[in-house]
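Structure (tokenized):
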């Protein structure tokens, strides 16, 4: 599970990263650290450390005589959990949503198939616990999202493939974006029955049934998202970060 970093340094990383992701500074443009210090109300050290973090994610590069510039999108570490979250947290494009849906459609059926043959008792317990939490969430959208994430994380872990489990960052990004839009618009189907079908198939050791169940779940998710985006706007703006950070104390 990913969370925004805390403290002035973390907030500076968040704000500058979001600005780059949404295109405030086009690739190849020169960034001015002094301007950031003034706009964000933070020290030179905070900005320098934030830019170092963003450089490690492939967003920035520094060269002598050219200063610090925005790198081409092809160089960005798009599977980085922060980049995925920044792309989906404000106003995700249709292309980004489609990319996430396609990756989920590739990864989760494969994960479900493996989980049905490799799951352990503790894996099943984790899935049951998450499903119970979904049922208990009721109208609490935040609790529902966290429980949904826990279920899908447990499903991938049940495949017992370390690399597949690391795809959690993409699945989480897809779920968070979809759930923020759909639950924000109060327009969604009851997904607990199909989650239960998936759990039952995994517990029964039936790979084909597990794949069918997860494909039904993904289809339901896509339908709900399309219904919202074609009609009522589900965005509530809660994830937008302000341009000014708290002032540093001496």
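Design, position by position:
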């Amino acid at each position: 599970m990913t969370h925004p970093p805390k403290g002035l340094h973390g907030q500076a990383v968040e704000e500058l990263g979001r600005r780059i992701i949404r295109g405030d500074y086009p690739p190849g443009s020169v960034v001015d650290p002094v301007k950031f210090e003034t706009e964000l109300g933070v020290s030179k050290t905070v900005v320098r450390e934030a830019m170092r973090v963003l450089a490690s994610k492939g967003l920035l590069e520094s060269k002598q005589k050219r200063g610090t510039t925005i790198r081409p999108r092809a160089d960005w570490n798009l599977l980085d959990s922060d980049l995925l979250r920044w792309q989906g947290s404000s106003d995700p494009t249709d292309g980004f949503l489609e990319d996430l849906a396609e990756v989920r459609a590739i990864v989760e059926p494969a994960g479900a198939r493996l989980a049905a043959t490799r799951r352990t008792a503790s894996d099943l317990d984790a899935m049951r616990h998450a499903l119970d939490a979904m049922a208990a969430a009721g109208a609490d959208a935040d609790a529902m999202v966290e429980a949904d994430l826990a279920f899908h994380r447990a499903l991938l872990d049940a495949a017992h493939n370390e690399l597949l489990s690391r795809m959690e960052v993409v699945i989480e990004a897809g779920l968070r974006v979809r759930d923020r839009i759909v639950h924000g618009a109060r327009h969604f189907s009851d997904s607990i029955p199909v989650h239960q079908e998936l759990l039952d198939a995994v517990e029964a050791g039936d790979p084909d049934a597990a794949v069918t169940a997860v494909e039904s779940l993904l289809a339901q998710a896509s339908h709900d998202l399309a219904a919202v985006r074609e009609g009522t706007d589900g965005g509530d703006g809660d994830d937008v970060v302000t341009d000014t950070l708290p002032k540093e104390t001496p």
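Reviewer-requested clarification: The beta strands are 30-31, 60-63, 67-70. The first strand starts at residue 30 and ends at 31.
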